[in-house]
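Good morning C.,

I know you're traveling, so I'll keep this short. The sequence:
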Amino acid sequence: MKHATIFSALALFTFGCSRTPTSSSPSGHADERYVQKVTCVNNLKQIGLAFRTWSADHHDKFPCNVSTNEGGGLELIALDKFGFDTNAVFYLKNMHGPEILTVPLLLVCPQDSSKSAAVDWSNLGLENISYKFTASYKIIPDSKEILAVCPVDGYILYCDGTVLDKDGKTPKADH
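The tokens, ready to paste straight into the viewer:
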């Protein structure tokens, strides 16, 4: 599948970037921060692509709008006071695969020291997910509704795959 090859290549590139040592500045700190910001944006873009790819096999619906009987999480949605689904982990576990979410590392912002990547998909828990996911009937592919946010860097992923910063601008990492 064409999408699987492109998506797998992107995942490997992001994994490599997030683990690449940097040393072009004396401290390496500025370069490391740049790589972490770029990786966070790339993670969100890949998550957006994964949701849209998954929806193509589920009548153009995202997991929060699909029954658990069909691999979604509709019956398990539990919104916190900000409208984020605290049970997103249940449907994220069902979204992995060669053409969807390739590695659990994508769910962790590199700036988030409180989270660590799951060893594998079966061990995925809240402690392995940095990003906050919304859940509503408005969450459909190609809409301008918010799909997820990074509480660390402030980036926002929209259902159409766009990632913007908290000011509504395309993220620009300072380098």
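Safe travels,
E.
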